[in-house]
Design a protein that fits this description.
This protein has 214 residues and is an all-alpha fold. It is 76% helix and 0% strand. The two termini are 36 Å apart.
Length: 214
């Protein structure tokens, strides 16, 4: 009985290990996002470590995070600057509508904002998996969003809900859980898409496929 209670492979220890990983990865994302322009690289690293290590149970989640962060820092920072500029323009557009347009147009505008949010939510996970230039990343993200629109709108809604929950419960420090939890949940929406566009790697007969093709 005692042996089963203190067995590190039992359900309780596996659950606490998973929660701890989510909290540490969320904290790493927060710290690496503090310069703001590095949010993209941090988001790519967070998605990569959650997909590879939490969902597919590969080892070294924190090591994978830092490796992906360094690898995607340049392109991720440039893409972040583009999205920040777009966010400023869209915010200014809403401010104009708030003064001049009826409520129905403002609601429609907010609903339409899910599209650029979906593109941004797709872009950095895409960067974590494929080598892209900034232009190629933005164009491919837009193309995938339009081609898989219901799935990508669900992705945008997931992140909007996560952000709203984090802001609403800021005093409870849910930011130490929601970033990695949203990234982990997003893998169930994005991995089938990425797998469809990933060519099978050449490997010896009987060799186990790479984690992203399992």
């Amino acid at each position: 009985m005692l042996r089963s209670i203190f067995n590190p492979d039992n359900l309780f220890f596996r659950f606490t290990d998973r929660v701890l990983d989510l909290m540490v990865l969320s904290l790493l994302w927060v710290v690496c996002s503090l310069p703001v322009v590095t949010v993209g690289a941090a988001s790519a690293a967070l998605y990569y470590s959650c997909a590879k290590c939490l969902r597919h149970k590969e080892g070294g989640a924190y090591r994978s995070f830092f490796a992906a962060f360094r690898q995607n820092l340049r392109t991720g920072s440039a893409a972040t600057a583009v999205f920040l500029l777009l966010a400023l323009l869209l915010t200014a557009g809403y401010a104009v509508l708030e003064r001049l347009a009826p409520d129905v147009f403002r609601v429609m505008y907010l609903v339409l904002l899910l599209l650029p949010i979906a593109v941004a939510c797709c872009a950095f996970p895409l960067l974590s998996r494929f080598a892209c230039t900034v232009g190629g990343l933005l164009a491919t993200s837009l193309r995938l969003t339009l081609r898989h629109l219901p799935r990508m709108l669900a992705l945008a809604a997931l992140y909007v809900a996560g952000a709203a929950l984090t802001l609403r419960l800021w005093y409870a420090a849910v930011v130490l859980l929601t970033p990695a939890l949203c990234a982990l949940l997003s893998t169930y929406l994005l991995e089938p898409v990425f797998r469809h566009y990933t060519p099978p790697e050449e490997r010896a007969a009987g060799e186990e496929p790479p984690w992203y093709l399992r």
